[in-house]
Design brief:
The protein is α/β, with parallel strands linked by helices. The chain contains 10 helices and 6 strands. The protein has a 6-stranded parallel β-sheet, sandwiched between helices. α7 crosses α9 and α9 crosses α10.
Length: 253
């Protein structure tokens, strides 16, 4: 059973989503119909109820969705450091806002998926199941915006390289501060990790990666963790984005 917490400031949206999700035998919507109506309440309930999935709107009162994601990730890390062994729910942003800045901010904060309101119910069901299995899911329109942002980022990096080359030689500091991400050295990925990375870019969860590569699910999980560690990513979506920035993979819109 997949336990889902809904966070939206509009009661009609929460009620409608609850009704739709409860048609699925493997979904359980937790919390009362009145919860969670703001970011602060979403944060508190996510920590208390430990849902598998947090379906979160971005435009929330008290604390907005992006800050809610950041604080939730931070609080769970702090609690785990204290030996409390808390699990961070997988977070799917479900919002009407599709501007590039909001999408990038949510993914950088640690969202595992991004759906626009108005998505067909089957897309919502699929996003929850794929994310629950460890995958990441972005709608095509969201993926396109992410790709465009990455392209603009590369353009800025190219400009920085040409404009700042002389200064970099003169400084000779040896650190990475101020350098474009794709110039910062990183530990090379193995051939197997590159294979896993290509499947990650397709949104596959560990189980499907294991089947495709004829390895155990545990081994697939190990490779994914290794990839994230080498790239400095905090989640699978960010790992794919960073890999694309480095030219390790190519994403199609």
């Amino acid at each position: 059973m997949i336990r889902i917490l809904l966070a939206d400031d509009h009661p009609i949206v929460r009620e409608g989503l609850r009704a739709v999700l409860e048609t699925q035998p493997d979904f359980e919507v937790i919390g009362t119909p009145q919860q969670a109506a703001n970011g602060e309440e979403a944060l508190r309930l996510a920590l208390e109820l430990q849902p598998d999935i947090l379906l979160l709107d971005l435009e929330m009162p008290v604390i907005d969705g992006v800050e809610t994601i950041r604080r939730l990730r931070q609080r769970v890390r702090q609690q785990n450091a204290q030996g409390q062994q808390k699990m961070t729910p997988r977070i799917i942003v479900f919002t009407a806002f599709d501007n590039d800045e909001r999408i990038i901010s949510a993914l950088e904060a640690g969202a595992d998926g991004y759906l626009l309101k108005g998505a067909p119910r089957e897309d919502i069901f699929n996003a929850i199941r794929v994310t629950m299995q460890g995958g990441s899911l972005l709608q095509p329109v969201v993926a396109s915006k992410l790709l465009r942002h990455m392209g603009q980022h590369r353009g800025i990096n190219d400009f920085n390289r040409t404009q700042g080359a002389a200064g970099a030689v003169q400084s000779g500091t040896g650190d990475h501060k101020g350098r474009p991400y794709d110039e910062i050295p990183f530990e090379a990925l193995t051939e197997r990790e590159l294979e896993v990375l290509a499947l990650l870019a397709q949104g596959m969860p560990n189980k499907e990666i294991a089947v495709r590569l004829t390895i155990s699910e545990r081994t697939a999980k190990f490779h994914v963790s290794s990839i994230m560690g080498k790239l400095g990513a905090t989640n699978r979506t960010e790992a794919v984005s960073l890999a694309a920035q480095r030219g390790l993979i190519r994403l199609s819109s």
